[in-house]
């Protein structure tokens, strides 16, 4: 097979001069070759210098790759090659040929150039295919000269000729002679290329680092990585996959491929999928310090099912390199690159930069998420702060949960007033479209705080997260219902106001941040507490309004202006004064004996005034213990004095924009009089124990049966207060001075009590009217009213024939009549003693003297004190 060629294809001149020229050419070639830096220059130079001395068709330099024991074309003499038009030429140029075969082994073993006749060797099944391709191109013989680097073969220079036996001994010796120069030149080129490559890599990494340093968002990263990778890998695509929050799966983070249309269905599926880390490929990359090269086909045939492999295969990515993205000891993801050659240093450099950028973006995203969450909570808090009613609450909650959090409200349950059951407060029924019947059944069954899920949530510090899948496996009806919604987790939290459990909230979501959950629950708890408080206030307000309406109605019926009976001159004078003063804000002082209708007149004035729409507020100054009068009138703050457990507003504040009726003003203690005077003068007050001054707009009507001038003289009533009150006095005449009103009053009361008792009494016998006229009426209209009431009760239907004027009254009337020198006070004193005797000394309660006199027990007590009536007076005689 091996054949030494003896003949030169071109005969050199045998002259000494021509030998000299040859030597010089070869010397020059040797010198030139050592300076060659560019690989194309080498082959051009070689051909130029040698071809003018020796004949051959073309030449090629191949290089050995010791890693995989192959050799491949490195320098090509394209122009001269007779096979460049051959169909397999390109394939040959790119191919790697194994060293382990006889032809190349022979070339390796020979220290001299060695030639082969193609016909002899090309059909050997192990021989490289380029031999045959050359033969087909007309080549017949090949001279192989080994190139060495130090002591190691680094490649070969192949010289081809179409003339058999074309390599002379002289040419062989020349080739041997310049083999070391050629080797030196090739290694220079390689070194140079290496340096150039390193510089390129460096400048690439520098550019990449510059591009990536400006990256702030995922979109920036995509742009920078796509632009840079295009430079080193013009056709291949790439994808950066990020490890998801679950730590178990990875999803596409950034990707670029010009080979796949963006709307491709499989691509979309791959981009939105979560691939398990442990899929036999990703885990290997994450565990590997160096980039790993995978054959798509081989991995599929190994049984790896992930659809991304299908996408790669379909796109024509035969090999993929996976490099982990990592910061410190933390894996962030993987860069997958469609590439068939691995430049470890370059890829590691790229991945280092990408990892830093990704970590920055993720940190940025985290900060942004936190800010967004906080902003969201502030908005939610604003929305919810104004919530007073349940519909407003529902609108606010649904808006935030669905639109912003992509969470569904499964249910809010609130603990009922029995503290044991829970009532559904709010829920999203649309969640249970697939299980409406089950949902309705569950909601219809009232659960209580001992229901296992509820009990767990209520006793937890900050809620429980239930895995829907796991809970459904237990067969629990609630969990089975949750499963129909398709969400992964049920977030269940207690709603609390302070330490008190208000209820529970149940949110369905795949994942939710703790910060958000805590924030939302706190806000919702406050809102529910507010709604409940508001509902209570509204219910209370409604009740008060109803009571108020009822009271107003009652007062209107009892104290109707039209129901003031009396048409005599005395009462006409009263009506005239009332009509003069009603419209104004002036203080009115109503004077008159007990039972003459002072309160009736006061109410009539109020009802005829512009303040009539608000209730007149009455204070009975005689009925209150001295120490409570002030608090009653002006109110007090919590803790203002022992027993002041709550803040309370006084009657003055209650009567704001209305009328305050101070009944029995003559009984007011001096100390309270001073305070009252101040408020009347200044029209403002402070609650007891309070610092705030409260402006009031109150009209005052005061009433008394005492002679206030006398009281002032006696030092029991403040003169200045008297003058303040006595702005517009109206004196009511005693009934005995208006005998003409007795008949209409009697008829009025008969009709009133007939209606009340159901007895139809339409007339009063003339004798009765006569009888009534002769009585002195120390208790005035009230006494007449009660007398008629009793008489109506005791009388048969039809005509009132009899009234039951107490017998003693008749004698008293005489006594009174017989004692013209008795003062009004003395008459009052003896009348009270008489009534006390009749009630066997009982002052208040049923059948007591106060009831007979129709005055409050306290009033009777104070009158007795004032009139100096003791037990001896009514028990003694
Ligand atoms: N002119 C009147 N017409 C109809 N009823 C009257 C009249 N005057 C008084 N009455 C009735 O007599 C009763 C006592 O009246 P009222 O309470 O107004 O008297 P008073 O002067 O305020 O009594 P006191 O000084 O004891 O507080 C009431 O039921 C009232 O309706």
From TrEMBL:
The keyword Nucleotide-binding applies. It holds the Pfam family HTH_8. CDD domains: AAA. PROSITE patterns: SIGMA54_INTERACT_1, SIGMA54_INTERACT_3, SIGMA54_INTERACT_4. It comes from the Bacteria. Transmembrane segments: none annotated. Residues 564-793 form the Sigma-54 factor interaction domain. SMART domains: AAA. Gene3D superfamilies: 1.10.8.60, 3.30.450.40, Homeodomain-like, P-loop containing nucleotide triphosphate hydrolases. Keywords: ATP-binding, Nucleotide-binding, Transcription, Transcription regulation. InterPro entries: AAA+_ATPase (IPR003593), AAA_lid_NorR (IPR058031), GAF-like_dom_sf (IPR029016), Homeodomain-like_sf (IPR009057), HTH_Fis (IPR002197), P-loop_NTPase (IPR027417), Sigma_54_int (IPR002078), Sigma_54_int_dom_ATP-bd_1 (IPR025662). This is Sigma 54-interacting transcriptional regulator. It comes from Terrimonas ginsenosidimutans. The lineage of its organism: Bacteria, Pseudomonadati, Bacteroidota, Chitinophagia, Chitinophagales.
């Amino acid at each position: 097979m091996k054949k030494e060629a003896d003949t030169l294809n071109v005969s050199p001149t045998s002259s000494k001069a021509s030998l000299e020229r040859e030597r010089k050419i070869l010397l020059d070639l040797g010198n030139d070759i050592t300076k060659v830096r560019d690989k194309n220059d080498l082959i051009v130079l070689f051909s130029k210098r040698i071809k003018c001395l020796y004949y051959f068709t073309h030449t090629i330099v191949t290089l050995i790759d010791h890693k995989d024991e192959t050799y491949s074309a490195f320098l090509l003499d394209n122009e001269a090659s007779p096979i460049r038009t051959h169909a397999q030429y390109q394939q040959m140029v790119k191919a790697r040929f194994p060293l382990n075969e006889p032809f190349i082994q022979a070339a390796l073993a020979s220290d001299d150039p060695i030639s082969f006749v193609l016909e002899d060797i090309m059909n050997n099944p192990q021989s490289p295919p380029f031999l045959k391709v050359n033969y087909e191109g007309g080549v017949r013989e090949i001279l192989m000269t080994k190139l060495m680097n130090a002591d190691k073969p680094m490649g070969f220079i192949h010289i081809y000729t179409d003339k058999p036996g074309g390599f002379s001994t002289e040419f062989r010796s020349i080739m041997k002679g310049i083999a070391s120069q050629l080797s030196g030149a090739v290694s220079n080129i390689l070194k140079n290329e290496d340096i150039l490559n390193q510089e390129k890599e460096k400048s690439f990494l520098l550019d990449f680092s510059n591009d990536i340093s400006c990256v702030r968002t995922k979109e920036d990263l995509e742009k920078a990585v796509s632009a840079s990778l295009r430079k080193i890998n013009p056709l291949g695509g790439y994808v950066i996959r990020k490890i998801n929050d679950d730590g178990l799966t990875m999803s596409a983070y950034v990707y670029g491929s010009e080979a796949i249309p963006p709307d491709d269905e499989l691509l979309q599926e791959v981009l939105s999928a979560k691939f398990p880390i442990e899929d036999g490929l990703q885990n290997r990359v994450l565990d590997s310090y160096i980039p790993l090269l995978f054959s798509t086909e081989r991995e599929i045939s190994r049984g790896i099912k992930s659809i991304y492999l299908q996408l790669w295969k379909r796109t024509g990515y035969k090999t993929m390199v996976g490099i982990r993205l990592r910061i410190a000891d933390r894996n962030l993801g993987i860069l997958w690159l469609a590439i068939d050659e691995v430049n470890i240093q370059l890829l590691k450099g790229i991945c280092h930069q990408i990892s830093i950028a990704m970590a920055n973006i993720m940190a940025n995203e985290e900060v942004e998420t936190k800010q967004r969450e906080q902003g969201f909570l502030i908005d939610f808090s604003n929305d919810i702060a104004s919530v007073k009613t349940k519909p407003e609450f529902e609108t606010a909650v649904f808006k935030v949960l669905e639109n912003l959090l992509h969470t569904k409200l499964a249910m809010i349950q609130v603990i009922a007033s029995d503290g044991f059951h829970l009532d559904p407060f709010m829920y999203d029924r649309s969640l249970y479209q697939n299980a409406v019947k089950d949902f309705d059944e569950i909601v219809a069954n009232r659960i209580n705080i001992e229901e296992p899920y509820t009990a767990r949530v209520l006793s937890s510090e900050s809620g429980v997260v239930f895995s829907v899948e796991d809970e459904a496996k237990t067969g629990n009806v609630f969990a089975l219902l949750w499963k129909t919604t398709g969400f992964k987790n049920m977030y269940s939290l207690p709603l609390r106001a302070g330490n008190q459990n208000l209820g529970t909230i149940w949110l369905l979501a795949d994942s939710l941040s703790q910060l958000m959950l805590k924030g939302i629950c706190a806000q919702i708890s406050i809102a529910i507490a507010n709604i409940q408080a508001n509902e209570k206030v509204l219910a209370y307000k409604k009740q008060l309004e109803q009571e108020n309406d009822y009271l107003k109605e009652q007062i209107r019926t009892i104290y109707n202006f039209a129901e003031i009976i009396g048409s005599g001159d005395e009462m006409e004078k009263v009506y005239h004064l009332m009509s003069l003063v009603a419209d104004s804000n002036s203080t009115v002082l109503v004077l008159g004996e007990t039972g003459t209708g002072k309160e009736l007149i006061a109410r009539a004035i109020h009802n005829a005034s512009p303040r009539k729409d608000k209730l007149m507020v009455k204070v009975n100054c005689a009925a209150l213990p001295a120490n409570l009068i002030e608090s009653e009138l002006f109110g007090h703050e919590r803790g203002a004095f022992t027993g002041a457990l709550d803040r309370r507003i006084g009657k003055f504040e209650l009567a704001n924009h209305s009328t305050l009726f101070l009944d029995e003003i003559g009984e007011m203690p001096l100390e309270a009089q001073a305070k009252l005077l101040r408020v009347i003068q200044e029209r403002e007050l402070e609650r007891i124990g309070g610092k705030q001054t409260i402006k009031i707009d109150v009209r005052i009507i005061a009433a008394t049966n005492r002679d206030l001038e006398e009281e002032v003289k006696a030092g029991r009533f403040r003169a200045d207060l008297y003058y303040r009150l006595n702005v517009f006095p109206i004196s009511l005449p005693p009934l005995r001075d208006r005998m003409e009103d007795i008949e209409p009053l009697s008829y009025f009361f008969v009709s009133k009590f007939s209606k009340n008792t159901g007895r139809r009494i339409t007339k009063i016998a003339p004798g009765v009217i006569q009888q009534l006229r002769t009585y002195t009426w120390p208790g005035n209209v009230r006494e007449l009213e009660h007398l008629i009431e009793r008489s109506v009760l005791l009388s048969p239907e039809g005509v009132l024939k009899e009234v039951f004027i107490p017998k003693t009254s008749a004698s008293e009337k005489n006594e009174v009549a017989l004692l013209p020198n008795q003062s009004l006070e003395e008459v009052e004193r003896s009348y009270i003693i008489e009534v006390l005797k009749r009630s066997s000394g009982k002052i208040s309660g049923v059948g007591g003297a106060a009831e007979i006199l129709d005055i409050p027990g306290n009033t009777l007590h104070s009158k007795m004190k004032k009139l100096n009536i003791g037990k001896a007076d009514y028990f003694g005689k």
